[in-house]
Amino acid sequence: MKVYFLRRLLLVPLTVLGVTFLVFAITRVMPGSPLERELQAAAAGTSEGGGGGGGGSQNNALSEEQIEAFEREYLYDKPVLLAYMTWLGVYPRERLYSEEEFKPATQGKQLSEETIGSSLIKDPERQVLISLAGTGRPVVVQKKDGEIEWARYADRSKEISEWEDVTKDGWEYRYETAEDRFQAHLKREKGQTNRSVDNYLPRAVLFKSRTSGLLQGDMGTSSVFGEPVWDLIKSRMPVALYFGILTTILTYGICLPLGIVKAIKHRTVIDNLSSVFIFVGYAVPGFALGAVLLVYLGATVPIFPMVGLTSQDFESMSFLGKVKDLAWHTVLPLLSYVVGSFAFMTMMMKNNLMDNLAADYVRTAVAKGVSFNRAVFRHAFRNSFIPIATSLGSLITIIVSGSLLIETVFDIQGFGLLQFRAITGPDQMLIMGTLTVASFLMIMGNILSDIIVALIDPRVKFQ
């Protein structure tokens, strides 16, 4: 059995990789990418920093440099496999990106004495001055025969041959021809352009390579919220765990005893009345019940708060005041969470127990003098709990997934609502982050279910 579970655990990374790669590839081709949203916002005049004419497309207000920056940030400048490896953290990505075009001699950039002195650039057609991103330190780059010959820190107090090379500090450089830039533009515009290669100039690019991805704990930045994805997930986890744990405790704490009572008191008044209430609750969706409770107990008769999980002055309350306020805000959402699962769990417990009470081994135990209560709880209950135990592992996913509709009704910022906003964004980095967490927990939940079943029923042997 140990070998079986070891194999299952070893397959977890491969399964997560397969799921995430498939979704990553889908998000690359689905409409509504972060770049498309920014272009639409810029065209409508609402994009911050838009409007630099540059080499941008004629139907948007973003410059081509801004578009390239978006592509680099969200990995649209790479093929799917390479982009996925970059997101995963096994392939480096370019950071602190700095660039400058090589101008023809007649358009050479004249440097003023107020900056670093025009004497630094001797040949404007072969040399270019770049200000490093992050530090602003000036660097002179020289090309030769279609490639970068050197890139050095500009220092007016020294001769050019004495300038320090930027590669000693981890900087890398690249030479991009006009044809390279034009082909990238054609790919971006899908061949629909009125520009030509003459609209571009060769340029020098300086950058630092840094491996940063999922394996390093970096899930990227949300294009909708503008915050790190992992920070967004962590901020929603406490809410998801809070409602998930409470829902689990209430569901199993009430449904299992109720199912036992219904099995023992089958077709009695207790069984019939409880069945009516259970199936009425099952027929009412949780979000619909939440809306009704919100209208009548939150607005019409203001007994409970209407939205949120805490009051505005929550931080200034005493400890007991915080507990009371949190509990008061929890009542209505929690009722909406648990109402749908009561019928399924209760009836499963009842039906399983009734089947086992009618089995030969229970009748034999009673015939040998075992008390009825002992036969129920020592023999029948354990076997009846095995089918329910198979779903215990999935509680891990339920605990963190939350309920989108209920969170929307009560304006609770949980994990379910975060997943919904990631999809409707669409926010590729946030989709990948929430999916990675959800898929990992689902796989671990399935393994946990097998372990629980093996612990409860010693007859189960996994090979």
Helices and strands, with pairings:
Layout: H1 2-29, H2 34-43, H3 64-73, H4 80-88, E1 93-101, E2 127-131, E3 138-144, E4 147-153, E5 172-176, H5 178-188, E6 203-210, H6 229-264, H7 269-283, H8 286-300, H9 319-357, H10 360-367, H11 372-389, H12 395-401, H13 404-409, H14 415-424, H15 428-456
Antiparallel strand pairs: 1-6, 2-3, 3-4, 5-6
Helix pairs in contact: 1-15, 6-9, 6-12, 7-9, 8-9, 9-11, 10-11, 11-15, 12-15, 14-15
Structural summary, described in words:
- It is a single chain.
- This protein is mainly alpha-helical and 463 residues long.
- It has two domains: 93-210, no CATH class; 229-456, Orthogonal Bundle (MetI-like fold), CATH 1.10.3720.10.
- The protein has helices spanning 2-29, 34-43, 64-73, 80-88, 178-188, 229-264, 269-283, 286-300, 319-357, 360-367, 372-389, 395-401, 404-409, 415-424, 428-456, and strands spanning 93-101, 127-131, 138-144, 147-153, 172-176, 203-210.
- The strands form two sheets. The protein has a three-stranded antiparallel sheet with strand order 1-6-5. It has a three-stranded antiparallel sheet with strand order 2-3-4, with no helix packed on it.
